[in-house]
From TrEMBL:
Protein name, UniProt field: Thiol oxidoreductase, DsbA family, FrnE subfamily
Length: 300
């Protein structure tokens, strides 16, 4: 597609800087609209924590010790990228749960079923892992999250367990190896047969510059008014967003963000829920409203 630029993130659902990249990706999707396509390659961060070692953050080896180091690293990263994390009760890894691979395979199972739901599922896994300290590398929690986003649970379990999702994940690992994407996130930017790699966490301005260069300014961002209506539409689009995602997308100061959210709360159009060291904002569900995707009706 000559009028679309593709941004492929090599990722793992428990990578904290991938979590921190969510505001930037949402801004790209909002500012460039249908001109940009964001997709994901599951790159598998931790095959076995007992054999893993991140020398920079001193993570790896004993699972219990690794959990403490991961929590420390995530909190430090959160203070930089602004996405919420919960370190109280964090215990993702244990002697029985040594890998993040099940989360990657779960995404591939969801992708077999429906791409849009798979991306919604990936976001939900990230939230549950980073901001809720859930044991997302267990089948029970993954099935629960799949149900929350409206996936066909029976089919999800079948694809997750039968080897189909495992095979798809192995193909992603091969792609990751081919591009030598060893640190996450790594972004592959594609346009009209051209490709370039951006390694590590990147600011919106980095993507904007690369998009302009690769497309010779034929693809440009569109003005995004910071009106209450536009901000509420953004919240509705994604369903659950951290304040930093709104501020980043609409270039809001702290005061402007607080004022807008306070107004929307007063109008009873949004609700806020605590999450670790921060919170998420979601549209308020009207009385007896039913979600056709999940088949769940909720009352206020």
């Amino acid at each position: 597609m000559s009028n679309v630029i593709e941004i492929v993130e090599f990722t793992d659902p428990v990578c904290t800087w991938c979590w921190g990249s969510e505001p930037v990706l949402h801004k790209l999707e909002t500012r460039y609209g249908e001109q940009v396509k964001v997709s994901f390659i599951m790159a598998g961060l931790v095959k076995d924590i007992t054999a893993f070692y991140d020398s920079y953050n001193d993570i790896g080896g004993d699972p219990v010790r690794s959990n403490r180091q991961i929590a420390k690293h995530w909190l430090e990263a959160s203070q930089r990228h602004g996405m919420p994390v919960k370190i109280d009760g964090f215990g993702l890894f244990s002697r029985e749960r040594v890998s993040s691979y099940p989360l990657n395979i779960a995404y591939k199972a969801a992708q077999i079923q429906d791409q849009t739901m798979a991306n919604r599922f990936l976001r939900r896994i990230r939230e549950a892992s980073a901001a809720e300290a859930k044991l997302t590398n267990t089948t029970e929690v993954l099935v629960e999250l799949a149900s929350e986003v409206g996936l066909d649970v029976a089919r999800f379990v079948e694809d997750f367990s039968s080897g189909a999702a495992q095979e798809a994940f192995e193909q992603d690992l091969a792609t990751t190896e081919r591009y030598n994407a060893r640190g996450f996130p790594t972004f592959l930017v594609r346009f009209a047969g051209k490709e370039t790699l951006l390694r590590g966490y990147r600011r919106y301005e980095d993507f904007k510059a690369v998009i302009g260069l690769m497309t010779e300014e034929t693809i440009i961002e569109r003005p995004t008014p910071a009106s209450e209506e536009a901000i509420f539409a953004f919240i509705r689009r994604y369903g659950s967003v951290a304040p930093v995602e709104i501020a980043t997308t609409f270039d809001l100061t702290g005061g402007e963000l607080a004022s807008t959210l306070a107004s929307l709360v007063l109008k009873q159009t949004i609700v806020c829920r605590e999450a670790g060291n921060g919170y998420f904002v979601s549209p308020k569900i009207s009385s007896a409203a039913c979600d056709t995707a999940t088949g769940i009706c909720k009352a206020v």
